[in-house]
Amino acid sequence: MSDQPVRPLNIACIGECMGELLSEGEDYQLGFAGDTFNTATYLSRLLSPRGHTVAFVTVIGADPISAKMRNRFEAEGLHTDLVFNTPGRTVGLYLIDNDEKGERHFTYWRDSSAARTLMDADREDVLRDRFTDFDLIYLSGISLAILPDDARARLIQLLADLGRLIAFDPNYRAALWPSADMCQRICAKIAPHCRYILSGLEDEQSIWSHDSASAAAHAWRQRGAKEVVIKCGPDAAHILSDQGTEEIIPTPIPHPVDTTSAGDAFNAAYLAARLTGEEIRSACQAGHALSAKVIMHRGAIL
Q1: Which residue segments constitute the domains of the chain, with CATH numbers given?
Q2: Active-site position among 35, 169, 203, 264
Q3: Does residue 211 carry a catalytic annotation?
């Protein structure tokens, strides 16, 4: 089954964009990145030329770096009607260093991030009204983890009430959750409302202690998700849906430069393909192909 629309797609990606400091010798270069922003950017690059629209949903500050961030959203073709401002707050910041295998090491400063205020004031009513315009709503575990408990519960309930297609990547960051058990409970709440789960085996091992991609995929199906993708880095991705099981092996990349955003890019290419009528195997191949390009480039965004 594909989810090919009969009209142009409208996609919303909910989350946090941060300032990204990428090491350049003894210095650092400033860019902008964040898991759902990365996916939104790649979705926009893939779909906007074909007449579809991608919106980013977040909160930024009213300071100069926030203004630059909004400009970046617009430069990527993202709709910014649902990019709110919270005076007195700013955007989060993180620093990346990479080891010789391209693996990332992060340092974060995000306590004052404006994105944590997404469900404050009257924004919930605005989101409830505007989200009816979208065919697919995409979010991640980070999108939920940064919110206060009550705001997180209200966002999940809002999404459940809407009945729209939802895509979710658990994207586990232990530092953002009080415990893995809390993350488990939140994932279990959102799973029944998800058309697509786009997880990674490392996250599944960290959250649930699953020992295989197959076990992880079956567990998500038991929670109510419809189409489950378990990304396994250089190994075969495992996909479970009503059509059965698929395992698709990526092309080997001997010397990756930087694995930042590889999963985010996969998610974008996979969803773009599925939502425009491609079957699971070709969608997964598209995801692997984009990830392969991204990991040969430093930083989250090509």
Answers
A1: 10-294 (3.40.1190.20)
A2: 264
A3: no
